[in-house]
C-alpha cells in the first residue's frame, strides 16, 4: 500500500488570517493583487526588493519567499479562495512569454484569476484581443517599472478592446514607493477621458496620490481601487481626511495585498482595513463581495 504523504503544518500566519474572515462570516478572501511570475523573472523581482534600501532608504524583507507550490498552499491555508497572478511587462517583447507562462500556471490552480499583461508595442492590439477572446480575466500594467505612458498612442486600440470587453486591468500608476516621469494620476485621467467605460483597478489606492485617484474612482463608474499595502505602518498612512469618502466608495474598493512580496504578515493588511472603522459590511464587500461581483463568471 502506498504511504500517504504527510501534510505540512499550517503557515504560522494562518490563524490570524482565518480568524479575520471567519469573524465576518465570509467564505474566505478574494485577493485581486497577488503575483506569481516565471522563476527567472521572480528572481529578478526579488533582487530589486533586496536592494530596496538603496532606493527607498529602508529594507524590504520578503516574508513569503518560498516556491510557487508552497505559496499556493499558503494562500489556500489562509482561505484565499480567488487570487490573481498579475505578470507585468518591463520592456517590449516580453509580454508574450509572461502571458504564456501565466496561462499554463492558471491551468493547474483553479483558484487563479487568469492574468496577463501588455506593453506599448505594435503587436499589443492583436495579442490583447486574442487574450480577451481566450478568457483572460484580468490584465496588469506597471508604468513605474515599464517606464511608459498609459496614453501612449500604441495603446489606444488596447484600451478600446478592454473597454468594450469589460475586462479589468490593474494599473500601478501611483508614484509609490519611488515615482518617475511616467507615474501619477494625469496619464490615467487622460485615458479615462477617452475611454470612460474602462474597468480600471488602481493599485495601492494610487498612493501617494491617493486623493487624485480617489476622485477618478468617484468620477468614473468602472474605476476601482485596491488596498494593496496602503493601510499598513510600513507603507505609510492613508490621508485621514479621505477615509470617510471610502464609505461612499464601498462598492469600488477591492482587497489587494502584493503577496508574496510583502515585508510583514498577510494579516497586517487585514487589521489595517479593520482599523479604518468603516464597519463589517464595508469589510465584507472589500474582502469578498466586490471582487466576486466584478469577476462574476
Q: Top keywords for this entry?
A:
single chain; 297 residues; alpha/beta; TIM Barrel; six-stranded parallel beta sheet; two-stranded parallel ribbon; 13 helices; globular; disordered N terminus
Would you give an account of this structure?
The chain has helices at residues 14-23, 39-50, 52-56, 68-78, 95-107, 124-133, 143-146, 156-165, 185-194, 210-219, 243-248, 266-275, 280-294; strands spanning 29-31, 80-83, 115-117, 138-142, 169-172, 200-202, 223-226, 253-254. The protein has 297 residues and is of the alpha/beta class. It has one domain: Metal-dependent hydrolases (TIM Barrel). The longest helix is centred in the C-terminal third of the chain and has 15 residues, at 280-294.
Kindly identify the CATH topology.
TIM Barrel
Instruction: Calculate the mean pLDDT score and round it.
Output: 95
Query: What's the main sheet like?
Result: 6 strands, parallel
SSE order, as H and E?
A: HEHHHEHEHEHHEHEHEHEHH
Helical percent range?
40-55%
Q: Tell me the CATH architecture.
A: Alpha-Beta Barrel
Number of helices: 13
Distance between the termini: 41 Å
Tell the overall outline: globular
CATH superfamily: Metal-dependent hydrolases
Percentage of β-strand residues: 5-15%
The CATH top-level class label: Alpha Beta
Cα-based radius of gyration, to the nearest Å: 18 Å
Topology:
Layout: H1 14-23, E1 29-31, H2 39-50, H3 52-56, H4 68-78, E2 80-83, H5 95-107, E3 115-117, H6 124-133, E4 138-142, H7 143-146, H8 156-165, E5 169-172, H9 185-194, E6 200-202, H10 210-219, E7 223-226, H11 243-248, E8 253-254, H12 266-275, H13 280-294
Parallel strand pairs: 1-2, 3-4, 4-5, 5-6, 6-7, 7-8
Helix pairs in contact: 1-12, 6-8
Amino acid at each position: 500500500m502506498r504511504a500517504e504523504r504527510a501534510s505540512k503544518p499550517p503557515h504560522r500566519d494562518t490563524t490570524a488570517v482565518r480568524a479575520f474572515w471567519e469573524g465576518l462570516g465570509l467564505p474566505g478572501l478574494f485577493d485581486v493583487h497577488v503575483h506569481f511570475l516565471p522563476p527567472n523573472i521572480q528572481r529578478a523581482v526579488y533582487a530589486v526588493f533586496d536592494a530596496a534600501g538603496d532606493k527607498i532608504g529602508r529594507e524590504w524583507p520578503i516574508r513569503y519567499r518560498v516556491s510557487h507550490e508552497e505559496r499556493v498552499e499558503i494562500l489556500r491555508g489562509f482561505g484565499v479562495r480567488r487570487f490573481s497572478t498579475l505578470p507585468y511587462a518591463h520592456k517590449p517583447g516580453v509580454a508574450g512569454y509572461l502571458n504564456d507562462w501565466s496561462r499554463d500556471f492558471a491551468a493547474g490552480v483553479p483558484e487563479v484569476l487568469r492574468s496577463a499583461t501588455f506593453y506599448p508595442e505594435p503587436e499589443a492590439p492583436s495579442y490583447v484581443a486574442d487574450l480577451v477572446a481566450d478568457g483572460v480575466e484580468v490584465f496588469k500594467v506597471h508604468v513605474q517599472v515599464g517606464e511608459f505612458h498609459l496614453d501612449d498612442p500604441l495603446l489606444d486600440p488596447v484600451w478600446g478592446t478592454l473597454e468594450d470587453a469589460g475586462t479589468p486591468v490593474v494599473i500601478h500608476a501611483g508614484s509609490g514607493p519611488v515615482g518617475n516621469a511616467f507615474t501619477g494620476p494625469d496619464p490615467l485621467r487622460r485615458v479615462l477621458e477617452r475611454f470612460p467605460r474602462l474597468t480600471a483597478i488602481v493599485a495601492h489606492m494610487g498612493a501617494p496620490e491617493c486623493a487624485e485617484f480617489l476622485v477618478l474612482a468617484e468620477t468614473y463608474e468602472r474605476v476601482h481601487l485596491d488596498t494593496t499595502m496602503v493601510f499598513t505602518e510600513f507603507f505609510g498612512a492613508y490621508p485621514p481626511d479621505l477615509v470617510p469618502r471610502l464609505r461612499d466608495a464601498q462598492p469600488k474598493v477591492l482587497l489587494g495585498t502584493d503577496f508574496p512580496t510583502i515585508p510583514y504578515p498577510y494579516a497586517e493588511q487585514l487589521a489595517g482595513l479593520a482599523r479604518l472603522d468603516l464597519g463589517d459590511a464595508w469589510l465584507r464587500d472589500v474582502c469578498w463581495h466586490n471582487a466576486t461581483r466584478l469577476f462574476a463568471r
